[in-house]
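Ticket #242: bound-state structure for glutathione.
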Amino acid sequence: MLHLYHALISTCSQKVRLVLAEKGLEWIGTEINFGRGDHLSADYLKLNPNGVVPTLLHDDHPIIESSVINEYLDEAFPDNSVRPKNLRRLAHMRAWRQYIDEVPTPSIRPISFNTFFVPIWSKMTEEEFLAYTERLPLRKHFYRKMGRKGFSQEEMEASIERLNQTIDRMEVALENGLWIVGDQYTLADVSLTPTIVRLEDCGRSDLWDRRPRVAGWLERIKTRPNFDVAYVPGSRDLGPHN
Ligand SMILES: N[C@@H](CCC(=O)N[C@@H](CS)C(=O)NCC(=O)O)C(=O)O
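RESOLUTION: The complex was predicted; output attached.
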């Protein structure tokens, strides 16, 4: 049995929902409400000591880290594979995945956080905000750097610069096929999807105005059957969440 702890708007959860949908797997979900602090409850921290989503339970065994979960799912349920069989292509896909985890995934956070979450934190007092961040196992310093008012213009620009690099690399990669590592839809495409969709939701689709292959890739991504299954209503809501 597959049980996913996730949040609709969480890009890391979207990655896993894309793979579950691509592989046609049945699962049950528990939605984590960040505003209520579900991710910091003692019970949830036993499953995921980092206090973040997603967490997958497979027959009650917890698996954490969205990229690890996605590889696990592809190994445990090999039908409709999202990884190349060829070892060199597999290494190439993993190099992409590593780059995505290191560069665009953290770079989308300042943009995402300023758009989605600052409206919530700006309502807290400084003491409430500091008390909240004190409880975060993984991100205390990241949140304090951000502060209640959000990331600075300088941080936002640095993030956009890194995301521009990613989009340039995608444009080059897509010269060789419909998908990032060739003609097979893989975990590289999955890992990039939530970041690119989030950029679009934050009003930054101008970043691929002059990257036609990336624009075409995004259209293909959105018409794949797994997309609407993973992006259930609410997954792209820009309003403040609690
Ligand atoms: N490396 C982790 C990161 C997970 C992560 O950062 N999840 C975010 C949502 S996308 C979260 O739970 N954030 C809660 C917080 O910032 O307190 C993964 O890929 O699973």
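RESOLUTION NOTES: Residues 10-12, 34, 39, 52-54, 65-67, 136, 139 surround glutathione (CB under 6 Å).
TICKET STATUS: resolved
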